[in-house]
Write a structure and sequence with these properties.
The protein has 88 residues and is mostly helical. It is built from four helices and two strands. The protein is 50% helix and 5% strand. The mean pLDDT is 87.
Length: 88
């Protein structure tokens, strides 16, 4: 992935606060590494439809046992923040 192991890639991106990632088609272990290294604030849910299958992608996140706040960020909170959308 990304020209090498995710951990090495993440180390290089740690200082770039304007770079975000999505979860589409990434293994759950890679998603967990991203959250651990960069925080849930830099990750957005993605299904990669029509290539990915949304129920599978959602199940992957549920399997990570995310805290409610982290799940909220990934499942819309981060996207709303980035697009400056009001939350109701």
């Amino acid at each position: 992935m990304l020209g090498g192991p995710p951990k090495a890639f993440l180390e290089r991106l740690r200082g770039y606060d304007n770079v975000y990632f999505d979860t589409s088609l990434a293994p759950s272990s890679t998603v967990a590494q991203f959250i651990e290294a960069l925080g849930a604030e830099r990750l957005l849910f993605g299904s990669d439809i029509p290539f990915g299958y949304m129920p599978t992608e959602l199940a992957k996140l549920k399997g990570l046992k995310l805290r409610e706040r982290e799940a909220g960020m990934l499942l819309g909170g981060n996207a709303a923040r980035l697009m400056k959308l009001g939350r109701s």
